[in-house]
């Protein structure tokens, strides 16, 4: 069971399929805020208002396709995973193109009753990847803050003699190199 709060956007034009996907998510995700979008315009609005953690989309939608959904999501935020669920994707080129254009996974609708078993490990992976990204960003931020603090400190003690400046720059470079290995 996943307890992490998640915002999930389902892009589906068939109410019955949207309900089934939602039901499958709730089997393993206890803290999910789920929104449903059925049109291209409502997708754009939902992306801005909700800022989803994960998007699950049908491939064949009225007036647009899964390719359009992937493009819209990736233009909004390339880090949001998109899962395509479709009733019919019998073309290997389309399947490969989905992945190349940014789909994180795709599944056939033929058996939605066990969809939760397929989605749960993906959701866990997405959560782990997001946590790792946030940790990397925090480390980078901390490193840049320390480098700025050091530069500010050294600027405060700007010596006149050229050899002192060279020694300080050498010291600064060594400290920055040391900090980058943390």
TrEMBL record:
Any coiled-coil regions, as ranges: 123-150
Q: Which domain of life is it from?
A: Bacteria
Q: Does the keyword Coiled coil apply?
A: yes
The record places domain Response regulatory at 7-124
The protein's name = Response regulator
Q: Which residues carry this modification: 4-aspartylphosphate?
A: 58
Its keywords, alphabetically, are: Coiled coil, Phosphoprotein
Q: Which InterPro entries match?
A: CheY-like_superfamily, Sig_transdc_resp-reg_receiver
Q: A GO BP term, please?
A: phosphorelay signal transduction system
What organism is recorded for this protein? Dokdonia sinensis
Q: Name one Pfam family in it.
A: Response_reg
């Amino acid at each position: 069971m996943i307890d992490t709060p998640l915002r999930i956007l389902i892009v589906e034009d068939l109410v019955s399929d949207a309900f089934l996907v939602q039901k499958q998510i709730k089997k393993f995700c206890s803290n999910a805020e789920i929104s449903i979008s059925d049109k291209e315009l409502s997708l754009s609005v939902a992306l801005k208002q909700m800022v989803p953690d994960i998007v699950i989309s049908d491939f064949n939608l009225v007036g647009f396709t899964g390719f359009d959904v992937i493009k819209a999501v990736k233009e909004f935020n390339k880090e949001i995973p998109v899962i395509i669920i479709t009733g019919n994707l019998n073309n290997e080129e389309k399947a490969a193109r989905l992945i190349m254009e940014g789909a994180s996974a795709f599944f056939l609708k033929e058996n939605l009753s066990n969809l939760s078993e397929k989605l749960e490990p993906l959701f866990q992976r997405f959560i782990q990847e997001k946590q790792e990204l946030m940790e990397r960003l925090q480390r980078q931020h901390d490193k840049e803050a320390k480098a700025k603090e050091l530069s500010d400190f050294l600027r405060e003690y700007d010596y006149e003699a050229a050899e002192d400046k060279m020694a300080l720059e050498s010291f600064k470079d060594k400290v920055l190199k040391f900090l980058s290995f943390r």
